[in-house]
Amino acid sequence: MLKSPKVKKFLNEWVYPLGIAFLLAAVFRTTIASPRHIPTGSMIPTIHIGEFIFVNMMAYDWHIPFTRQSFEEKSNPQRGEVVVFEFPVDGSKDFIKRVIGVPGDTVEIRDKRVILNGQPLLLEPVDPSEVKNPVPLKYDNVSFFRETNNDKTYFVMHMNDRMARDRSELKVPEGSYFVMGDNRDDSDDSREWGFVSREKFLGRAGFIWFSFDKERAPWVRFNRFGTTF
């Protein structure tokens, strides 16, 4: 059946270009970089509620386009990196946390302090003014610290009115990782549900490309744009 000139023009100017654009976007999202929205505060003060980040999908694996499957591993997650992975308890959810322990490490949590391979991680108290952005209004009575793991330094937050969530020493199994949120007293992480297996990792958090704060003006946090981890 022959197409009329109007139909051909519509296909050539709209349908085909849009189809190619959507195809390329899908390939980009599943193999190169994937935009993600952060709905919770488990990574405060590093990443805030309402921020949008790009995830480097090529950090650890080459992915099969249009899937989450890896056809070749490139490298492995390292201590101190912020990672995105499939939630081990429910694969339909993606979580973002920081890698604390890698295969073969021993991890212990004592009095809100991380003990890695028998040695406490360097944890230095810092003034709130040193942290790049204020925390959401619902968080008060908190303390900030500068933690160092694997020569990577970052801020973590403790809630002064929360009891320590101690965990006895655990050895990270081969092919697995121990992860925690930077908001140490308000994060659902390996302290509750255990280790993350290597095949669950999707990529490494890259940078913030948009930040919105619904609790206070001016709402859009321009100073957070481009923040890396």
Q: What structural category do the secondary elements indicate? A: mainly beta
Main sheet overview = 7 strands, antiparallel
Taking pLDDT < 50 over at least 5 consecutive residues as the criterion, the unreliable ranges are: none
How many helices? The count is 2
- What fraction, in percent, of the residue positions are helical? 10-25%
Strand content: 35-45%
Shape: globular
Strand order in space, largest sheet: 1-2-16-5-6-14-15
Mean pLDDT: 89
Topology (elements, then pairings):
Layout: H1 5-31, E1 33-37, E2 51-56, E3 61-63, E4 70-73, E5 82-86, E6 94-101, E7 106-110, E8 113-116, E9 119-120, E10 122-126, E11 142-149, E12 152-159, E13 167-171, E14 176-180, H2 190-193, E15 196-197, E16 201-211
Description:
- There is one protein chain.
- With 229 residues, this protein is mainly β.
- Helices cover 14% and strands 38% of the residues.
- The strands form four sheets. It has a seven-stranded antiparallel beta sheet. A four-stranded antiparallel beta sheet has the order 9-8-7-13, with no helix packed on it.
